From TrEMBL:
Note on how the cofactor is bound: Binds 1 Fe cation per subunit.
Name the record gives this protein: Pirin family protein
PANTHER family the UniProt entry points to: PIRIN (PTHR13903:SF8), PIRIN-RELATED (PTHR13903)
Domain Pirin C-terminal, chain residue ranges per copy: 193-293
Amino acid sequence: MSNLDREAALSVCGGRGFVVAEPVRELLAPRRVQLGESTEVRRLLPNLGRRMVGAWCFVDHYGPDDIATEPGMQVPPHPHQGLQTVSWLHDGEILHRDSLGSRATVRPRELGLMTSGSAISHSEQSPVPHPRFLHGAQLWVALPDSHRHVDAHFEHHPELPHVTAPGLTATVILGTVDGATSPGTTYTPIVGADLTLAHGTRTDLPLEPDFEYAVLAMSGEVHVDDVQVLPGSMLYLGCGRTELPLRAESDASLMLLGGEPFAEEIVMWWNFIGRSNEDIARARSDWMNGDRFGEVKGYEGDPLPAPELPAVPLKPRGRVR
């Protein structure tokens, strides 16, 4: 999915200096962003208070939206570099096309994982016809410097491993949870899981104490470490936890995001991740000139133009403002 902001801001993220090295309960409110003509998303990362959780650097939550008489998601071809995109649905379908020739329909609780490497472009659409409801999350993972120029590729994993406990089912999106490992390719120590809880469930989920974590509430009423987390909001949890107390006041679902704190500082602007302002300017120029990022075939419409780069010089910052 694209960042469709027409005035995208430059920001530097990453670095371990601002990692919270102990358990915390930091509730992050979303920013509402219009995605195309008919989809509004709630942006949780980057946030005014926090830019990354492990290598997770971008999180949008959208829906549930009734799109029975609407076109649904319509994101024109756009570029990416230096990151992986993770498409995750609870309802609906997304048709993915990219400049490698990949074409796949991603359905609920299937993993659509695109590794951009140094250059790729793709489009995302609700197919015609499409299911009535659309509900999901789009996430980015920053690639470390040692792998940010890997060959671009797309993975579609319809079947993912599960971990179960009384009242809880955890689908492993990326990384490993309680011994179950996702087939999705990763380049840093990271974890992503979809947690489904039945009404009345009280349980403790095992965690890695060296990882930092956050949870994104997708639906229902749930308390995480005694904090109520409403759908569309995110609770940052810090590091140093060996388990996470969960209590469901209704049928509910969460996304657990975590990983080893990302050691490198990154520059993230529009749909690009680099290490300097020059990296970003070169990527923008290449996209606008039709170089390097390829062509998405089969999409009816023009590619998305890049916004203008800001005139102000880039000022490095840490993981939090």
